[in-house]
Amino acid sequence: MNFGEILSRYEARTGATTTRANLAALIDEAQVEISKRFGDIRREEYYSAEKGEEYDLPADHLKTEEVKDENNRRRRDFRVAPDGKISFPVDGDYILIYTRVPDSIDKDDNNAEPDVHPIFHEMIVQYCAAKWWEDRSEGIPAEEAKSERMMREFYRKVDEAALVL
How far out from the chain centre does Cα 6 lie? Predict the structure, then answer.
């Protein structure tokens, strides 16, 4: 599904129009939420890392999956700082296995496709519609409940789809 198709489905589902920039921002939020559960895994190697020295995380780092040492043993004693740095407890070679941030969608290209597996594309529409209801609710309990239900359904569908892949 591409940007133009998502836009059409979003407007048909909500009955509202939106700006391309607003929809692109919602699509990017949805992609990050999907990637937190089932994203593209990458590896970054840190050779001859020194104890306590801070190293930059990859620019596209979203979530740390695991760290392994030079003997391929899983390490839990590394530290990730809030400023995007990683440090290790002893000198050595390490491999950071991480989920990357998906690329942003191009709001100016109707043919642009989200940077998550196609099985998740329909769920992006669900996320965008849930956010529309959230914004629209203005504290009205029934509308807030609808938004929450839609968001729970989004996460449920993402989790179910991830099991298939």
Answer: 18
Query: Interior CA angle at 159 toward 148 and 24, to 5°?
Result: 65
Q: How far apart are CA 84 and CA 49, in angstroms?
A: 16
Which CA distances in Å does 116 have to 81, 95, 105, 148?
Answer: 27, 24, 10, 23
Q: Residues of the chain with pLDDT > 90: what percent?
A: 90
pTM: 0.90
Cβ atoms within 10 Å, residue 50? 13
Which residue, 122, 125, 126, 120, is CA-closest to 164? 120
Which three-class secondary structure state does DSSP give residue 82?
Answer: coil
The residue whose two tokens read 């009205």 is 140
- Strands 61-69 and 55-56: what pairing? unpaired
C-beta atoms surrounding 49 within 10 Å: 22
Chain centroid, CA 101 distance in Å? 6
pLDDT digits (tens, 9 = 90+) for 127-152: 999 999 998 878 888 888 999 999 99
- Torsion-angle region of 38 (φ positive above 0: left; ψ -120 to 50: alpha; else: beta): beta
